[in-house]
Amino acid sequence: MRQILASIALFSACVSGGCGPSSQSDTRLARHTAGLGDCGARGPGVDVSLCDLSGLDLSQQDFTGASFFKTTLQFANLGGSALVNTDLREANLTLAVAAGADFTGANLSKANLTDADLRNATLVNALLQEANLSHILWDGANLTGADLRLAQLTDAVITHANLSGANLSGLSITDTQFVGTNLSGTNLTGVSGEDVDLTGTALRGARLDNANWVQSDFIRADLSCLDTSTCTSLQGAVLAETVWTDANLTRANLDGAQLVLASLERTNLTEASLVDAVMEKALLAGTLFVRANLTGANLKDSLVTGVLHLRDANLTGANLYNVNLTAADVSGVTWSNTSCPDGTNSDSNGGTCVGHLAPPGFIP
């Protein structure tokens, strides 16, 4: 975060003309002659590929359909400019200021946007495949339908942004904030995430299959769905040590998910599917598993505080060993080959774990 604040200071210096050897555009343009086209050209459709436009003030201009292929735009000010359908492949936008710019349909594949300021920018349907997005500022940005496959996000700020319907599959995300961001319908399949803050995000209908979200926060996140066709999928996701306090996972699919040491405090998993999910040593505090399918789920050694709501849940083949269910609501539960908290099997107890809900050595 300190690096991001330092970057903002550098942005301000650049906008006021403090970047590079000169603050005069005419003087700098004399140096920008290495490109394929006319490096001094401005306007829609211009070709400034391979040019060095670092530090220039290119704000509030119309570059619709222009080519910036492999162009150097370090410290450049593109604030409020129209860059619709531009070619920015492999461009260098390190520390560039593009707040409020319109990149709709632009191709930024393999571009370097390290420390760039794209707050409130529009990137609808933009291509950002394999782009470097480290330390980027994307507060309030609109990335609806954008393609960020295989891009790298490290220590970035993407709060209160709109990434609905975007493709983030295979993305590498570390120490990044998505607080309050709309990720509904987003493809997050195979994402590798660590220490990601998704507090208050909307993830309805998102795909998080086989993703890795180790030590990430999903506090108050909404992954609920109204019907099975739009349900959030976390099949096979690695969610070890994640925090789901007050999150809504109603009807979500977590089959085979790894939730070891996860915190599920007041998490709503009503009618969720957790077939073969692993929740060993998880924190289950006031968690709702009402009508949830926990067939084959492993909850061994989980810590229960408060009331655990298991009403009408399916616990066929589930492992509940050493889980204190003495205060749990187990009305209507389906018991079949269930490993009870005390180590016995429901099939040996007349088809139930009732009467065997205390872990070994439990003292009331």
Topology:
Layout: H1 2-15, H2 25-29, E1 152-154, E2 172-174, E3 192-194, E4 212-214, E5 283-285, E6 303-305
Parallel strand pairs: 1-2, 2-3, 3-4, 5-6
How is this structure best described in words?
By secondary structure, the protein is low in regular secondary structure. The protein contains 2 helices and 6 strands. It has a 4-stranded parallel β-sheet, with no helix packed on it. It has a two-stranded parallel ribbon with strand order 5-6. The radius of gyration is 26 Å and the shape is elongated.
Number of extended strands? 6
Give the integer mean of the pLDDT values: 90
- Main structural class: little secondary structure
- Radius of gyration equals 26 Å
Work out the oligomeric state of the chains in this entry: single chain
Q: Which band does the percent of strand residues land in?
A: under 5%
Low-confidence sequence ranges: 4-33
Main sheet specs? 4 strands, parallel
Helix content: under 10%
Give the CA-CA distance, first to last residue: 47 Å
Instruction: Name the shape in a single word.
Output: elongated
Which descriptors would you attach to this protein?
364 residues, little secondary structure, two-stranded parallel sheet, 6 strands, 5% strand
